[in-house]
């Protein structure tokens, strides 16, 4: 499916525009179906977007927020994506939203993935909104180059749900929604910032193996068009 590039002068303008679009999608979902679902990314990029979105007045009590991926660490760990969302998105107007964590207290990441899959089964089929990020290695969600479960994660036949991922560039073991869970979101966004990531995106748009740059799976095979939001 084709992608569309939305470029902005700076991160603040991007955050305003993306937050308005996402709030509109969530509000439409609530009007149409009585509830809305959104899966967001972690990392360093989405902070300003989260803060802006958190201030927009929609029926947040009818919105479920989850993560596209998470480290296998509890929510008080500074590297937790849950912590980032709690501090920046589950605030202000959005404080009444429901949050569905991927991390679960379990002996292993594999056990946590099973529990998370069961808990998220009633949301996101499809998600109303998915916000992807991208690392400079071309990973998105926790689809890491060289990841031990990458083939399974990207296989469109792998069912919706959460699986584990371990990879050299990933640090802790990860929990990630599968490709099939994310690719058909009613609004599918790739949010990236910086000249470096634009160069990575341009490379990802060239021919090459998906396994080298897993973002290619989304750019090439997602059922929904990828709306790319970029600022320098
Ligand atoms: O590991 C992760 O990194 C990517 C990109 O993060 P950024 O710091 O370069 O913005 C992120 O999309 C993903 O959710 C996160 O777990």
Walk me through what this model shows.
The two termini are 25 Å apart. With 232 residues, this protein is of the alpha/beta class. The chain contains 8 helices and 10 strands. Strand 2, helix 2 (47-54) and strand 3 form a beta-alpha-beta unit. The mean pLDDT is 97. Helix 1 packs across helix 2 (47-54). It is globular and about 40 Å long. Bound molecules: the ligand O=C1O[C@H](COP(=O)(O)O)[C@@H](O)[C@H](O)[C@H]1O. The site of the ligand O=C1O[C@H](COP(=O)(O)O)[C@@H](O)[C@H](O)[C@H]1O has 11 residues, from loops.
Named once each, the bound ligands are: ligand LXAUTJHC
Q: What is the CA–CA distance across the termini?
A: 25 Å
- Rg over C-alpha atoms, rounded to the nearest angstrom: 16 Å
Query: How are the strands ordered across the major sheet?
Result: 1-10-9-6-2-3-5
Runs with pLDDT <50, length 5+?
Answer: none
| Main beta sheet strand tally, sense and closure | 7 strands, parallel
Number of helices: 8
Average of per-residue pLDDT values:
97
Strand percentage lies at: 15-25%
Number of strands: 10
Level of helix content?
25-40%
Whole-number count of domains: 1
Task: Identify the CATH class.
Answer: Alpha Beta
GO molecular function: 6-phosphogluconolactonase activity
Catalytic activity: 6-phospho-D-glucono-1,5-lactone + H2O = 6-phospho-D-gluconate + H(+)
Family: Belongs to the glucosamine/galactosamine-6-phosphate isomerase family. 6-phosphogluconolactonase subfamily.
Organism: Ferirhizobium litorale
């Amino acid at each position: 499916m084709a992608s569309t590039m939305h470029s902005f002068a700076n991160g603040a303008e991007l955050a305003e525009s993306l937050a308005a679009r996402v709030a509109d999608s969530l509000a439409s979902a609530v009007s149409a179906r009585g509830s809305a679902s959104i899966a967001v990314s972690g990392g360093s990029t989405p902070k300003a977007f989260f803060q802006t979105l958190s201030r927009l007045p929609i029926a947040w009590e009818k919105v479920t927020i989850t993560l596209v991926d998470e480290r296998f660490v509890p929510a008080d760990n500074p590297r937790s994506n849950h912590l980032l969302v709690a501090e920046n998105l589950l605030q202000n107007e959005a404080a009444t939203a429901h949050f569905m964590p991927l991390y679960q207290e379990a002996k292993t990441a594999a056990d946590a993935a099973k529990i998370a899959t069961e808990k998220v089964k009633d949301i996101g089929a499809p998600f109303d909104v998915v916000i992807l990020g991208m690392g400079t290695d071309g990973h998105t969600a926790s689809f890491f180059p060289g990841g031990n479960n990458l083939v399974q994660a990207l296989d469109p036949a792998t069912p919706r749900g959460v699986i584990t991922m371990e990879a050299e560039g990933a640090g802790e073991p990860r929990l990630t929604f599968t490709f099939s869970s994310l690719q058909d979101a009613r609004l599918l966004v790739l949010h990236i910032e910086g000249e470096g990531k634009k160069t990575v995106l341009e490379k990802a748009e060239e021919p090459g193996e998906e396994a080298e740059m897993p973002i290619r799976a989304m750019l090439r095979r997602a059922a929904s068009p990828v709306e790319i939001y970029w600022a320098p």
